[in-house]
Amino acid sequence: MMLHPWPALEQAARTWPGAEALVFPHQTARRSFAQYHGEALALAGALAARGLGAGDHVALLAENRVEWAVVQMACAALGAVFVPLNTHYRKDDLAYALKQSDAKALICSTQYRSNPYLENVTALRPALPLLGHVFTLEEDYPRLVAEGRDFTPVAPDCDAVAALLYTSGTTGFPKGALLSHRAMMMVATNSALRLGLAAGDRWTSIIPLFHCAGCILNLLGCLSQGAAYVGVPSFDAENMFRIIEAERCTHLSGVPTSYLAMLDHPARSGYDLGSLKAGSCGGADCNPDVLERCAAKFPMPGLSQVYGQTEGGTLFACPQHDDRFRWETAGRALPEYELRIVNPETLDVLAPGEIGEIQARGPMVMEGYYNKPEATAETIIEGGWLRTGDLGYLRDDGRLVIAGGRLRDMIIRGGENIYPAEIENVLQQHEAIAEVAVFGVPDAYYGEIVGAAVKLASPVSASALQALCASRIAKFKVPAVIFTVERFPLTPSGKIRKVELRDWAKAGRMETLA
């Protein structure tokens, strides 16, 4: 296993020089492994000529595009720390990330949609004395690649910090997780093997490249196996069908909301999706029934659930032919990970079947949060265990079941712990429900009561949904209030933001279902 991306790219360029490595149809851009290698080497040389080198922080602010992957690899050749930034960042977010990361250079798109990246950065630069260079992908990048020459890559250090990846930041400003080359390549390679990826396969994904699943699982996973990464700028269900059909994609990555949107799209049957062999779905709200239907109807026989996070990469993944287990569970831990389920208050290890916090340790866990020692100490505890903050339980056979999302999403009603995923899975089975999210609503007597927000596919009453729940789960878990929404607030990777739903409920911004 290659434990550093630059030797991995050198080997790929020798082994499959003419094979496609990067495909971005919206740009009509294609790169073979040899071209990928040559372009990254040239860019690294141009950046080195401007004084950037090992250990320097180089930020990237851009939508999914072919240059994104090249910049990541140029940083690896240079020995620089790669800092990918969220494409949704506006002025304040951007100011924070560029300052907190100590970025010495920024490579950016001039703008993306209505977000004027270059204009914002130009206004911020006087307050960013360390930011010595700003390069645009539209004008500066071609010139840099054209002039790059005579560069010898830095000797690979697998344990050096490769990237500073910012977390989603659901409360306050995000934290920057420091990941080594070893950690990123182990996650990428082991995940790709678990999902059955091989040379010549073609993996597309709805996930932004700035997300850990995009730049590690997808990009580096493809690199490790000699597969092509087929990029899209953003998620649109019908566009995904077009891409899969035209590019004969073999693998697909998404989140529950994207799979549900594609499954229910009326145009799906008009496209040939028969090239799909396998795929991955990440998120605490994975519904086994939805995954099973996608596997059958796309068809995509090897669709599997995966589980991971920025601080630890992919922790669990199901082999693509793990029968029913790949929908109901997130599979077994990847090689060299140790996993345990603990009581989050006492840290006592729990028996199989008992719900608690998922904790992990191993060489793929982050080094820590950049310049945040207190947050690091709270997250990586004695013994090197990573506190994921996610809830789940282990079966007797070692497979992980994601039981209720995040610890902060757990609802405590009059002292009873309630896990939203259990209720969501029941509600999702009603034919009138297109999407659902369950969360806690403040209550003067119980502290919290169960609330549900639903996006309807057809009319239904609140009492009918509550009756369905009452027939399947304990009375105290039945949603006391059900709201309707036209759309859900989503993270950039397509996951429902329950914190925002709670705020909407408090502010009376959602209509109550009669």
Could you walk me through the main structural features you see in this protein, from its secondary elements to its overall organization?
With 514 residues, this protein is of the alpha/beta class. The chain is built from 16 helices and 27 strands. 32% of the residues lie in helices and 26% in strands. The strands form 6 sheets. It has a 9-stranded mixed β-sheet with strand order 2-1-10-9-11-12-13-14-15, with helices on both faces. The longest helix is centred in the N-terminal third of the chain and has 17 residues, at 33-49.
Shape: globular
- Strand order of the biggest β-sheet: 2-1-10-9-11-12-13-14-15
- Termini gap: 57 Å
* Unreliable spans: none
List the total number of helices.
16
Nearest-integer average pLDDT: 92
Largest sheet: 9 strands, mixed
CA radius of gyration is 23 Å
Tally of strands? 27
Q: In terms of structural class, how would the helical and strand content be classed?
A: alpha/beta
**Helicity range of the residues?**
25-40%
Strand content: 25-35%
